[in-house]
Amino acid sequence: MQLLAERSAQPLVYANLAQEIQVAVDTVKRWIDLLARMHYGFLVRPWFKNVAKALRKEPRWFLRDWSGLADEGARAETFVACHLLKAVEGWTDLGFGEFELRYLRDKQKREVDFLIVRDRKPWFLVEVKLADTHLSPSLAYFQGQTKAPHAFQVVMNLPYEPADCFRVHRPLVVPARTFLSQLL
Predict the structure, then answer these.
(1) Which of 77, 59, 79 is nearest to 67 (CA)?
(2) Are 32 and 23 in contact, with CB atoms under 8 Å apart?
(3) Alpha carbon of 48 to those of 7, 45, 173: distances in Å?
(4) How many other β-carbons are positioned within 10 Å of the β-carbon of residue 50?
(5) For the chain, how long is the longest CA-to-CA vector?
(6) Which of 17, 65, 68, 114 is the most exposed place for a label (fewest CB within 10 A)?
(7) SS3 label, residue 158
(8) Which pTM was predicted?
C-alpha cells in the first residue's frame, strides 16, 4: 500500500512492482484487485478503439484519497480523477448511459490524462495542469482522432469563471473549479 501511495497518477507496471517486493506478478495483480475492491484506489485503463497507432499500455493507478499526496502534480491529477470517476459512476447509475473513465497514449508518447467514454463513444478529453494555460497539442490531436465533441485543459490554479464549458467544441482551457462544478 505504501508503494502504491507513492505512485498515484502513474502507470502501474505489475512486473516491476512484483520484482520490487519479490512476489509473483499474479500475486501483485490479486493484491491490487483487492485494494481496488476495498476502495483504496482504482485503475484507469487505456482506450484503444479508433486511435491510430495505439500502443497497449498498463493501467494507471490512482488513490481514492488524493489529499495526502506530496507531489502537487500527482495530487491535482488524482483529485480530478476522483471527481471524474464519481461522475462516471453517477451518470451510469442514474441511467444516463454507460460511462467509462479511460486515458489515451500512443507510440509517439502523446498522451491525454483522461477520456470519458459514453455508450462506447468518446465524449470528452481532460488534460490536467497546475498552472499551464498553453493548450496541450495532444488535446487537439486526440480530439481529431477520437471525434470527441469536447476537449478540456483543466487548470488548477485559475479562478472560477461562470461559463458552460460544454458549449464549446474545440480544445479549451478551463479553470478546475468551473469544470468540476459542471460534473455530477
Answers:
(1) 79
(2) no
(3) 24, 10, 25
(4) 11
(5) 52
(6) 68
(7) coil
(8) 0.94
* pLDDT per residue as tens digits for the range 21-61: 999 999 999 999 999 999 999 999 999 864 554 455 789 99
Length of the chain: 184
Q: Provide the terminal-to-terminal Cα distance of the chain, rounded to the nearest Å.
A: 29
In this structure, the dihedral spanned by the alpha carbons of residues 88, 30, 6 and 65, taken in order and rounded to 10 degrees, is 40
Q: How far apart are CA 134 and CA 173, in angstroms?
A: 8
- Range of the structural domain that residue 98 is part of: 2-181
Q: Which three cell numbers stand for residue 100?
A: 467509462
Strand partners, 106: 54
Identify the pLDDT of residue 54: 47
Q: How many domains does the chain have?
A: 1
User: What pLDDT, on a 0 to 100 scale, did the predictor assign at position 48?
Assistant: 82
For the four alpha carbons of 67, 72, 78 and 82, in that order, the dihedral sign comes to: positive
Q: Which of 23, 20, 102 is nearest to 59 (CA)?
A: 102
Cα angle at 125 between 180 and 85, to 5 degrees? Answer: 50
Q: Which residues pair with 114 in a beta bridge?
A: 126
Mean pLDDT of 155-175: 97
At 114 the pLDDT is: 98
Helix/strand/coil for 75 = helix
